[in-house]
Amino acid sequence: MDPILELKDICLSYHSMEGEIPALSHISFTVEKGEFVALVGPSGCGKSTILNLIAGLITPEGGSVLLEGKPAQESDLYVGYMLQKDHLFEWRTLWQNVMLGLEIQKKVTPERKARVMQLLEDYGLGGFRDVRPSQLSGGMRQRAALIRTLALDPAFLLLDEPFSALDYQTRLKVSDDIGTIIRREQRTALLVTHDISEAISMADRVIILTAGPARIQKEVPIRLSVSERTPMSSRSAPEFKTYFNEIWKELNTDAQA
């Protein structure tokens, strides 16, 4: 069975008046259905660029992006993209915000509306459907942004540092909420983050990138001995510190090279 995502020998450079700037160098990896993978690496190494390639927003100069074995441009697999900011519109209520994608794609049906309402109820937002975004906490806004993405029933989620705008305490709580939702909904996800602890606590596998032009330095499978794999409980696992030290060492080895 084909992986849900396969990047094959991806190369990409940016072009400017000053010349060519290599961004990605021979990147190859796969993501299996139901897997949660995290990308970590130095700032500016091309992590978000990889997500943009998968989403079809840019095209590689070399290599290929396959979704369920088909070129990304030919695949009918729906990919959801959750960005750093929640991009909720203040002139729309919470309900109107989470329904926006369905409205744009003209996919509003009684069944989908019931599904979205159930997601709001399940994840603590059912009583806030008529509230404006400014009346919600940062964590509630991020949950709403994820529900808006899930409303379109994506088979694959791209998460571009979705917690980076939050303070540390809120970030811990929201990453736990979002990670739990993604696993409960049995979604496949690829997370970009600078936070090593976040990557270990949420992912089944961590891919470490070098400084630009990015290449894959190492892949670290995450196996934690916890009874229930949630981001918060994962941080208490006895193996957590060992994984942290391993990834920290790899990132700093590259930085000193």
TrEMBL record:
The keyword Transmembrane helix does not apply. GO terms for molecular function: ATP binding; ATP hydrolysis activity. The keyword Transport applies. PROSITE patterns: ABC_TRANSPORTER_1 (PS00211), ABC_TRANSPORTER_2 (PS50893). SUPFAM superfamilies: P-loop containing nucleoside triphosphate hydrolases. InterPro entries: AAA+_ATPase (IPR003593), ABC_transporter-like_ATP-bd (IPR003439), ABC_transporter-like_CS (IPR017871), ABC_transporter_ATP-bind (IPR050166), P-loop_NTPase (IPR027417). Residues 5-236 form the ABC transporter domain. It comes from the Bacteria. It holds the Pfam family ABC_tran. Keywords: ATP-binding, Nucleotide-binding, Transport. Transmembrane segments: none annotated. This is ABC transporter ATP-binding protein. The lineage of its organism: Bacteria, Bacillati, Bacillota, Clostridia, Lachnospirales.
